UniProtKB/TrEMBL annotation:
<feature type="domain" description="Alanine racemase N-terminal">
    <location>
        <begin position="6"/>
        <end position="226"/>
    </location>
</feature>
<dbReference type="Pfam" id="PF01168">
    <property type="entry name" value="Ala_racemase_N"/>
</dbReference>
<dbReference type="InterPro" id="IPR011078">
    <property type="entry name" value="PyrdxlP_homeostasis"/>
</dbReference>
<dbReference type="InterPro" id="IPR029066">
    <property type="entry name" value="PLP-binding_barrel"/>
</dbReference>
<feature type="modified residue" description="N6-(pyridoxal phosphate)lysine">
    <location>
        <position position="35"/>
    </location>
</feature>
<comment type="function">
    <text>Pyridoxal 5'-phosphate (PLP)-binding protein, which is involved in PLP homeostasis.</text>
</comment>
<keyword id="KW-0663">Pyridoxal phosphate</keyword>
<dbReference type="GO" id="GO:0030170">
    <property type="term" value="F:pyridoxal phosphate binding"/>
</dbReference>
<protein>
    <recommendedName>
        <fullName>Pyridoxal phosphate homeostasis protein</fullName>
    </recommendedName>
</protein>
<dbReference type="InterPro" id="IPR001608">
    <property type="entry name" value="Ala_racemase_N"/>
</dbReference>
<comment type="similarity">
    <text>Belongs to the pyridoxal phosphate-binding protein YggS/PROSC family.</text>
</comment>
Length: 228
């Protein structure tokens, strides 16, 4: 299957699940996760109409952002682990950072955001399955971190992101996704401009959309398996 066919198939599934859940059309956005994939693959996705891309590695991501710099309608999301010594490149080149789980990183991103660029959109990453190995904050820390981040001048807090632990049963998966939905509603009550709940990948996309996801992140099903 070609990249454009894969994109069409996934978009159709997103539309179908959105309709089945009686949510508004186009309320779920597709983030194409292009990490490790070559420029040529991204070009094919762009030709097929895809505009939002997710990257996990700073150097690789920045090279891609720069390569496509003259295409101003693209949206670049940083979705990987971010160390404080790499924040400047991310602040300078990306439009979104989905993996905020420390105030220090957020402060650096805000300080390093270039003058003249719009505020950097950020999501708080929640460790919803409470895995010791996973990044993200505990749900109980959400409002405190959100309060501090909302005061940073060059960041715009837009919502939450999670990578729930994969469960073999969809109903088991639903538990974490429903918790995310409740946290998202709580965040919305306290802050303005909250409109993005990034959750759902290939295997849990349907349940994620039922639970209010506004952005699903898909890599392999668009671009094929990754070779590391
Ligand atoms: C790699 C990655 C994805 C996409 O994973 P696939 O299994 O290739 O669809 C989604 N979200 C995050 C945070 C990722 O790192």
């Amino acid at each position: 299957m070609s990249i454009s066919q894969n994109l069409a198939t996934i978009s159709q599934r997103i539309q179908q699940f959105t309709q089945q859940t009686q949510r508004p059309e186009n309320s779920v956005k597709l983030l194409a996760v292009s990490k490790t994939k070559p420029i040529s693959a991204i070009e094919q996705a762009i030709c097929a109409g895809q505009r939002a891309f997710g990257e996990n590695y700073v150097q690789e991501g920045v090279e891609k952002v720069q390569y496509f710099a003259n295409q101003s309608d693209l949206e670049w999301h940083f979705i990987g682990a971010l160390q404080s010594n790499k924040t400047r490149l991310v602040a300078e080149h990306f439009d979104w950072v989905q993996t905020i789980d420390r105030l220090k990183i957020a402060q650096r991103l805000s300080e390093q955001r270039p003058v003249g660029k719009p505020a950097l959109n950020v999501l708080l990453q929640i460790n919803i399955s409470d895995e010791a190995s996973k990044a993200g904050i505990a749900p109980t820390d959400m409002l405190a971190l959100a309060t501090e981040i909302s005061q940073l001048p060059n960041l715009k807090l837009r919502g939450l992101m999670a990578i729930p632990k994969p469960e073999s049963e969809p109903e088991q998966q639903r538990i974490a996704l429903v918790q995310m939905q409740m946290l998202f509603e709580q965040l919305k009550c306290h802050f303005k401009d909250i409109d993005t709940l990034s959750m759902g990948m290939s295997d849990d996309m349907q349940v994620a959309i039922e639970c209010g996801s506004t952005m699903v992140r898909i890599g392999t099903a668009i671009f094929g398996a990754r070779n590391y």
